[in-house]
Amino acid sequence: MRKCFSLLVLLAVPAFTTFAQEKKPLVNRLVDLISAPTPGLDPGAIYQPDPSWNLALTGGARQASIAQKQKLDIHILGEVIPASLNSRLKGDVDPYVGLQFGYGNLTLSYSQNIKKFSSHDHTTFNFDYLNAGHALQIQYFDYSQPMKLELEMWGEDSENYKSDTGETNKPVRMRAVIADAFYAFNRRTFAFSSVYKGNKIQCRSAGSIMFGTKFILGLVESDPADIISLWTGGVGRQTSTQAAFGAGASYNLVAFHRQPDPESMKGLRNLTFNLTAIPMVTLFNKFSSTFYDQDVSGDYYPASKSTMNGNLLVNYVVRAGAIFLWDRYSVGVSGSYDSYTYKGKSDFPLESLASLVTTTGSFSRWSSSLRFSVRF
Q: What's the predicted TM-score (pTM) here?
């Protein structure tokens, strides 16, 4: 996981080639990334306050889910039986609270679901670098929820058709690192970060064509002794790695703006809305399953692994938000929806039990947030 995460960050760096052109010491360039004003912006379109510390309280709701269908031929006593296994992990709609803290363009945040209203745990950490023309957002979330299962044998048209449903006895744990990088081609009159952070203030309406990349490292783990292992032939761990690239558009609509005093920020009034939509093509899509077996003492160990390279697929990112700023304070609302799918074929590790497996799956996540922030 650490090697993949390092590769993810290295791959995201080319989206910010503007900074590599400056021949400054590394420390100076890092300071500029955090706090220096963005060069080339039209001051009549975007107001840049001096960099400052900011603290924000957040709250909202979110939901994540995974759905997967595997088709295979099961070998039982010399008979080949067509079968399909449907698994679904659909989380509750989680109300959550969180805290954000940052300086200049950087923000770190943590959020936790309110357990009184949830039947599981859901923790999220975020690292955001948001500038006017580009952004890097890295999110890690850890999520546990029982998984629902449905096994079908023979086709529905067959007189031998059988279907059975169940649920894991223990929660299935889902973890993921998701990194999004965005680049705005309008680097003079448009500030992508204005609505989602407020460190740049959009003075008049503007939009831009956007380039976006998304990297996903996902891990789903279940207890090898649970019912899901019996139905899947011993699967206890599944990992996914995806890289997607695409282009779309983002637009800031300024409903109201009043310029502040540059030193005290007194008098600032601004209301801005944003809508962003970026279709993406998944160019790299790898999915693997680890099968467990028991040793003589009854302990489970990873016995084999099956790897699937998925097909080329189209996914998308949609975001919307609004922010109201006054003096050194702001209130923002935002919502996002992410979806990615995977599809491919892989060999079952034990040919005596089953044949080629066709897997189709999808992951989706939506969230809404209310953010109250103060600059100091």
A: 0.82
